[in-house]
Amino acid sequence: MTLRMKDLNEEVLDAWLRLTTAISNTKLVSDMPYNEALICNLLYNSQKQQPDMPLTATDLCKKTQMLKSQMNRTLQSMEDKGLIERTRSTLDKRQVFLWLNTDSPAFRTQHEKSLKLIDSLIARTGEEKAGKIAQLFTEIAIMAQETIQ
Hints:
single chain, mainly alpha, two-stranded antiparallel sheet, 6 helices
């Protein structure tokens, strides 16, 4: 490994830690637990992109890397708060589909707060650069998932 590569390793690691710390410390999702916000986002995007193909707890476990027991506790909490609804499949009674209640005040408040924060970041970087950042974050996330698995 070259000296530059080693320095770059440290630079990328430092940037990664600064970003995750900044997100954690600003409490991007301060109005609800992080895992609930993450699940809301996954269900929201899924319902937007594929409204006829709802996600299951198993799908969410794969996407979030959460244990099934943790996922079940989180989903129960979300259902109790009115954030999600569950429906049993008519074809396979073992399958339970999850639906985000987008009318939930808790979801609306958190979603709007998150978008407002992201809008302020886009305003500071500019739309073109923000688009490149989103593309780069997506590539990094995919590579990290492939590397970790």
